[in-house]
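Example S7 (structure tokens).
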């Protein structure tokens, strides 16, 4: 998190004071560090030098960020026609796009076929049959990866667990085997890959090692059935530091994963999202009002669950801290900032009409006042991409910082934007 640090009692993103962004652009605003994004991408590529890293667009779909990662050499993992549109809009090489997703519509599959995406990750028998029909109709050869559900517990939040038997994703090993026996389906489809994605915010290599053992066993079965498997798509899921996690580094993950892959003769595809973007972004919000309760303060902010859903959806714990602080200490670890005395228990809540609308509950923080600027840390991934217009609130602006400069890469929504799609439907 070195690209966000306190200097002279003030939070900086790279060389730009966070407060100057808030003053220029207003709040709420997401702020991303270009160098933090690139550092994390390179960290992963260094740890897995042979892998094709397909950045998972769902984590943060901003075009400026996609274009930054494309320039750095990334491919893309997309899960909808909209994400594919975004990847193509920044000039991604279609060969370096994998199209995953449990519920692709026919029009989305056709869009993928016509765009020439490198690999479609198939998750059910119905989908495979539809794909076979469409590939024939379009007269195209299509490379496919079969997403298997390895029934592995990734030890993460149940909403982001995706590789257990009861989850909706992929097919179990028995079904996968019977699908591969359907010779009628494979005229224009070539199954070249096995795909797994077992969950998100995974902090150790153990679940990957278990999943990979099952994948490798399955690959030898598939090859025995005549399928020329040359790709393992390991999905995403590497965890990040939200404040206090005990985490395996990318290099440590690689040390456990790569030797297993070595004998498979397969290329490796990875689909990281959170790992690259999570710690590269913050959300700036202003305190509107402070209410005093007997046992705590409530700071009502101008950002809420429509801007950042993770606390409400997953009980996610994001470090929240004032942008201006009392300490003189430079270069402190922002995720470890705390008050020695004079602080109090504080609920940091949003302005929406929901009790579940909060950014953080029961936090020990310095005394807050109206107009204070707060930073919600580690919100680069699954922040803006999950934002909504609930309560008819315009979605926030996004800013990308490079050194001492910053650029607005998504303008704040306006009230006109909110009603644009309904224009012409008002009866007078
Ligand atoms: C298929 C697939 N790949 C990759 C990802 C990215 O996961 P993460 O952001 O944890 O790396 C997800 C997240 O849900 C996913 O569903």
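Recovered sequence:
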């Amino acid at each position: 998190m070195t690209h966000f640090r306190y200097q002279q009692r003030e939070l900086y993103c790279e060389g730009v004071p966070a407060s100057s962004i808030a003053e220029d652009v207003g709040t709420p605003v997401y702020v991303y560090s270009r160098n933090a994004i690139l550092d994390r991408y390179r960290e992963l590529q260094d740890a897995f030098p042979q892998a094709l890293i397909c950045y998972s667009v769902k984590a943060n779909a901003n075009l400026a960020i996609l274009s930054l990662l494309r320039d750095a050499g990334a491919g893309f993992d997309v899960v909808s026609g909209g994400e594919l549109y975004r990847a193509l809009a920044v000039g991604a090489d279609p060969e370096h796009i994998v199209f995953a997703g449990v519920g692709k519509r026919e029009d989305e599959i056709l869009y993928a076929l016509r765009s020439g995406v490198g690999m479609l990750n198939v998750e059910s028998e119905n989908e495979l049959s539809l794909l076979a029909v469409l590939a024939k109709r379009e007269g195209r050869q299509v490379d496919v990866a079969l997403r298997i559900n390895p029934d592995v517990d990734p030890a993460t939040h149940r909403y982001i667990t995706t590789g257990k038997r009861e989850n909706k994703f992929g097919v179990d090993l028995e079904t996968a085997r019977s699908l591969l026996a359907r010779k009628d389906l494979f005229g224009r489809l070539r199954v070249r890959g096995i795909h797994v994605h077992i969950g998100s915010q995974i902090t150790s290599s153990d679940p990957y090692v278990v999943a990979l053992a099952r994948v490798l066993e399955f690959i030898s079965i598939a090859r025995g059935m005549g399928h020329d498997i040359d790709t393992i798509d390991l999905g995403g899921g590497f965890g990040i530091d939200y404040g206090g996690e005990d985490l395996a580094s990318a290099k440590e993950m690689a040390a456990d994963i790569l030797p297993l892959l070595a004998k498979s003769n397969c290329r490796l595809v990875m689909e990281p999202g959170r790992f690259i973007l999570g710690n590269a972004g913050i959300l700036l919000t202003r305190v509107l009002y402070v209410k005093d309760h007997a046992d705590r303060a409530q700071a009502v902010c101008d950002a809420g669950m429509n801007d950042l859903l993770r606390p409400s959806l997953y009980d996610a714990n994001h470090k929240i801290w004032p942008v201006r602080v009392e300490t003189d200490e430079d270069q402190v670890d922002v995720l470890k900032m705390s008050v020695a005395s004079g602080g109090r228990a504080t609920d940091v809540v949003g302005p929406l009409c929901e009790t579940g609308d909060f950014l953080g509950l029961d936090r020990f923080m310095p005394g807050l006042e109206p107009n204070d600027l707060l930073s919600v840390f580690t919100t680069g991934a699954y922040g803006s991409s999950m934002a909504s217009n609930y309560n008819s609130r315009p979605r926030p602006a996004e800013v990308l910082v490079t050194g001492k400069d910053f650029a607005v890469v998504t303008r704040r929504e306006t009230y006109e934007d909110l009603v644009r799609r309904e224009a012409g439907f008002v009866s007078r």
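Notes on this example. Residues 206-224 form the longest helix (19 residues).
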